[in-house]
């Protein structure tokens, strides 16, 4: 897990961080994440949980349409739940999605395009529909590879500690302090996903660092 601190939420941060990256990138629909890196090097995936949230927020505006969309998306998540419960391999997950999810996705696309003509663009349901359609190529990309996730909720969970902490301490004190905080968050979150008890690891690492070769510090990183 890697946390990177930047002074603003602008495009410069992710663009600089990912300038040498090549591979698959999943994010929400925030515009700063669009078209990063050299064209063709990054395959971008969107998040169905964020699209679902937009449609759920439209319930007060248009409960009927909102519920129709949420029901169809729920069927996509039913398929993902089946894959987890059966502990399918990546190849089996891709096959399951191609056989079952793609049909539902086509159904959702038809519904979104038909409803787009029936709602006000600035209404809550209209903005939710447009948000989903604007991200459509990225939203459906998860069906192409069993390693991909339908959403980026795993990342959302990883950054929950940052969001809660920010409400408590409000200020980092300085940009340098915030950068150090990002390093600490990165290490502790890595402990979490690797099943390493963070306090024990940190104590052992700090005890070892004074006599450890500087060129081999990466070996002290939390590892299962």
Descriptive terms for the model:
single chain, mainly alpha, two-stranded parallel sheet, 4% strand
Mean pLDDT: 92
Q: What integer value in Å does the Rg equal?
A: 21 Å
SS-derived structural category: mainly alpha
Low-confidence stretches: none
Strand order of the largest sheet: 1-2
Total number of beta strands: 2
| Portion in strands | under 5%
Number of helices: 10
Helix-strand pattern, N to C?
Answer: HEEHHHHHHHHH
Helix fraction, binned, reads 55-70%
How far apart, in Å, are the first and last alpha carbons? Answer: 14 Å
Give the overall shape, derived from the CA principal axes. Answer: globular
Explain what you see.
The chain has about 220 residues and is mainly alpha-helical. Helices cover about 55% and strands about 5% of the residues. The protein has helices spanning about 10-15, 50-55, 65-85, 90-115, 125-135, 135-140, 155-160, 160-170, 175-195, 200-210, and strands at about 25, 40-45. It has a two-stranded parallel sheet with strand order 1-2.
Record the SSE blueprint:
Elements: H1 12-17, E1 23-26, E2 42-45, H2 48-57, H3 63-85, H4 90-116, H5 124-134, H6 136-139, H7 153-158, H8 160-169, H9 175-194, H10 198-208
Parallel strand pairs: 1-2
Short summary:
Helix content is 57%, strand content 4%.
């Amino acid at each position: 897990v890697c946390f990177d601190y930047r002074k603003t939420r602008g495009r410069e941060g992710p663009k600089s961080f990912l300038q040498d990256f090549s591979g698959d990138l999943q994010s929400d629909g925030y515009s700063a994440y669009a078209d990063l890196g050299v064209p063709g090097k990054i395959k971008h995936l969107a998040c169905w949980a964020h699209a679902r949230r937009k449609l759920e927020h439209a319930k007060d505006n248009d409960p009927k349409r909102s519920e129709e969309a949420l029901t169809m998306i729920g069927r996509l998540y039913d398929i993902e739940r089946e894959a987890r419960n059966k502990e399918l391999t990546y190849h089996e997950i891709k096959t399951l999605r191609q056989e079952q999810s793609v049909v539902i996705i086509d159904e959702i696309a038809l519904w979104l395009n038909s409803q787009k003509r029936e709602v006000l663009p600035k209404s809550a349901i209209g903005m939710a529909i447009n948000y989903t359609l604007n991200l459509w190529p990225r939203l459906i990309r998860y069906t192409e590879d069993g390693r991909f996730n339908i959403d980026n909720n795993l990342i959302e969970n990883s950054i929950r500690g940052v969001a809660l902490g920010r409400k408590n301490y409000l200020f980092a004190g300085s940009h340098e302090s915030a950068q150090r905080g990002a390093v600490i968050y990165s290490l502790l979150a890595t402990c979490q996903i690797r099943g390493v008890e963070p306090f024990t690891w940190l104590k052992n690492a700090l005890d070892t660092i004074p006599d450890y070769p500087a060129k081999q510090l990466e070996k002290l990183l939390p590892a299962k």
